[in-house]
Amino acid sequence: MENEKKKFLVKKLTKVIEEADKNGVSRSDVRNILINPTVDKVKKTDSKTKENTGIENTEYTKEHEEKEKRDERKLSPLKSKYVMYAFMYVFGIISTLITIFIHGFIVDALAEKCFMDQNVYAAEISRPLVQCNMCRNLDSIPVESGISAEEFKRKYAYTSVPVLIKDATNTWSAMTQFNFQFFKDLYFRTEDALRTVDEECQFFPYNTDFLTLSDVFNMSDARANFVDGEMPWYIGWSNCHKEVRNKLRKHYQRPYFLPNNSESSTLDWIFMGGSGPGALVHLDYVVRPSWQAQISGMKTWTLVPSPECEAECKSFNVTVHKGDIFVVDTNVWYHSTFIHPGDISITIGSEYD
Ligand SMILES: O=C(O)CCC(=O)C(=O)O
Ligand SMILES: [Fe+2]
Fold first, then answer.
1. Segment 149-173, tens digit of pLDDT
2. What is the dihedral of CA 333, 339, 148, 290, to 10 degrees?
3. Of 3, 88, 166, 271, which residue is most buried, by most CB within 10 angstroms?
């Protein structure tokens, strides 16, 4: 090495050694650094900071370690993003569960009879007032036979004037086929039918101990046949099971007098049982007028006008015999039923618009 260059380097190194001495770095450390100048990233940054701050090495290292710890405690942006996602996910699940729970509670509460009763009062207060035209001049319930669809439409279909249509089911095989055993076999043999009715359709136990339609079909033969000493029964249900509907509708047709363009509900209503009170006085909230065909037995309907029409309108009793169809708007007429002694009363009906 040239003398000049050597002198220059010695001068520089002397400065480095002086600097090291000042900062308490031993000569052997300086030597080691000169032999192996490789340092890790953090240490490099450290030295840079140290140069700027002039903090003693030991203090500086301590402070650096604390900073490192603090930084570790802080989450990297990437980590905190994942934590946020996880939080949102858990929050989403919890809020969904709460919503399902509250909804289930409301549905259950509505299914409770006591709640329904309170609901009837609430509905009575909030229902729209009935126009009393349908009963103002009505002295008795009209009875018709062989009425045309046009005449039925003009006089009854949408007027809320009740009408009894005589001998309206002559051609229906339901008249000979429908009995307790028919319905029992139908529901037992059609897959999922009882579960569907119990869970998705409506069941009216009226004055019985039955909770579901399954209970009805599982009663003893003696009770089903109204043997003396057995508990009387009368029930109703809506069928919303498709296969059952198709099988039922093989045995009855859409009443011949309904307006051609009126649509029939896909829901069948069946009421069945023995002598005694049937439905207690009530008003329905089914929106559409309905027809009910008496397949077996005899039933008397009592119709009472709503309170706002009481001064102008009368109440009526209508006795429906086997083969008759009774058309009544159960949304505007309060109604109750009574089943006469004799054959089991079986009716099937639906709504139309
Ligand atoms: O047939 C019955 O006993 C009651 C029928 C009823 O309440 C209705 O169809 O709205
Ligand atoms: Fe009703």
1. 999 999 999 999 999 999 999 999 9
2. 40
3. 271
